[in-house]
Each structure stands twice: as C-alpha cells, then as structure tokens.
Amino acid sequence: MGDIRDTVRKASIFKNLEDEEISEVLNITMEKRVHKKDLIMQEGDEGSTMYMLLEGEVEVSKTLTMKFGGEDIRKAEKILSALRAQDHVILGEMALIAKEKRSASVLAKTDCVLLEIRRDDFMRLIETKPPLGVKVLLNLNELLAARLRHSDENVIRLTTALSIALSR
Predict the structure, then answer these.
(1) Domain ranges of the chain
(2) Tell me, what's the pLDDT at 14?
(3) Over residues 32-43, mean pLDDT
C-alpha cells in the first residue's frame, strides 16, 4: 500500500494538505477491515462516519421502489457504481457535515481496508485546527458539488429519455 500519507493525500478531500495536516487527519482515523460481501453502509441508516477505501473494491447501490398497481409494490437494488481503492474513493462523506440517513448502500466486492473518520472527531479537528478545517471543508464542498452536477446530468438524461419514450 506504500506510505499512508501519500495515499490519503490523493483523496480529493485531503488534496493540498501539508504533511503536518495529513498527520492531524490520520490522528482521527481508525483502520477498518471488512470481508467480501460485508455491508459497509446501509441505505436509510443514520450516518456518522466517512470512509476512505485503501484496499479492495466496493459496490454502491440504492433501493428502487416500484408500484405495479394496487398494492403490488416491489423493491429492487440498483447498482450505481463499482469503485476501486486505486481511484482514491471517499464513501459516506455527507455524514461528516449532516446528521442524515445514508443515501446509498455500500457492499464490499472484495476484502477491503478502509480508513474511518467519525463525525465527532472530525468536528473536534476543525474546531481545534480551523485552517485545516477550512481546507478540508472546501475540498469536501468541491466533491459534493461535482457529485451534485453528475446527479443533475443523470436526471436530465433520464427525463429526456422518458419524454422521448412517452412521445412515441
């Protein structure tokens, strides 16, 4: 895996941090190992931790609820993406700033090693090290904005496809 500092620095929310700041971040992390097919996060559960994927692969999915008339309601899992550690993946980042339910489920496709950051520890870090907190929060905002843009593009594609299908 190499130097953990270099690996952490490659994650979008920790980019441009100095060595000392990376050390401060590492001080609030815990390593978590999960096995293939373990559920890392469950959609709808209360979220209070963020993870950085250090080793392995995961699948991100959402539950789709479909109504087929009357009381015939069916649920199905839709895989949104497959992610690898080499991509410097951050999971559950919204839990650091909002006390909300998880928006998706994350399943380990292989044995995985993750770095976990708890919301309380993160809040303490940004309160005690404001310049570091500002850098990480700005990076986090960039990540969330990019994900929101991507979601917007998907909505436009889907509504366009639906409009075309319904016009035939």
Answers:
(1) 4-166
(2) 93
(3) 97
**Whole-angstrom Cα distance, residue 104 to residue 142?**
20
pLDDT band at 164 (very low <50, low <70, confident <90, very high): confident
Local confidence band at 127 (pLDDT 50, 70, 90 cut-offs): very high
Report the pLDDT value the prediction gives residue 48, as an integer from 0 to 100.
94
In terms of C-beta density within 10 A (0-12 exposed, 13-18 middle, 19 or more buried), how is residue 71 classed? exposed
DSSP the chain: ---HHHHHHTSGGGTT--HHHHHHHHHTEEEEEE-TT-EEE-TTSB--EEEEEEESEEEEEEEEEEE-STT-EEEEEEEEEEEEGGG--EESGGGGT---B-SSEEEESS-EEEEEEEHHHHHHHHHH-HHHHHHHHHHHHHHHHHHHHHHHHHHHHHHHHHHHHHT-
Q: Does domain 4-166 have CATH number 2.60.120.10?
A: yes
